[in-house]
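Morning. Coffee machine broken again, so started the prediction first thing and wrote up yesterday's gels while waiting. Chain of 254 residues, entered below exactly as on the submission form.
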Amino acid sequence: MKIQLIRNAALWLQYGGLTFLIDPMLSEQAANPPIINTANDRRNPLVPLPGPAEKWLNPDVVLVTHLHQDHWDAAAVSLLAYDLPVLCQEGDEDRIGGQGFTNVTAVPDDRPLVVQGVTLTRIGGQHGTGEIGELMGKVSGFIFRAEGEPVLYLAGDTIWCEEVEQALEQHSPGTVIVNAGGARFVTGGHITMDEQDVVDVCRHAPEAAVIAVHMEAINHCLVTRDMLKDRLAEEGMLERVSIPLDGEYCNPLR
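Came back before lunch.
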């Protein structure tokens, strides 16, 4: 297994003999307007890609956890080949197919999907709480399994919640990737994991290596890498968590 953070939630994963492009946001810096109802009006993405987009256009499989613009943007739709295999959560396949992609498969809510020897199991999540959580809609994480590979849990856009806790208990992943930018609007709570949520993941999965991404790229993600490092240091957990920079390979620390 090798994991490269591209930017935000976009990852290049080599796993079970396949390469996965996960949640591609390939827009140029400042190409998109700011997320509305947030604490600043900086245009997105806040930072450039760490290399030309062409580096990541030929995966074996594309995996889209959900269809928010910072996970599946117009640039990705225009740059990726329409015949690439695309995996998504149930309910998103028609929209992706309507964008021209001809090989779209939804990972079922109720059973695993096997893709060329790699087994994917969908895990639910909560993209916030209350009314905001309802408005943010369905999101998904995924458990990866393959012969000779550690179990990998890609949590996706979720806060710490029952679904995450159950996934850690039931699947015992060796590596957990969390979206840790603490995204939030001007009202309501956070909608992706903040510092406390990452601490909770570490406490509930003491044997797992944790990789924290989805920081410093979108205007409503307010938890920075340094903020997360400071909190983890206070908890004595800094050695547990890899916090890669854009473009870095982030193989687990444990």
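The chain has one domain: 2-242. Going to sketch it on the whiteboard this afternoon.
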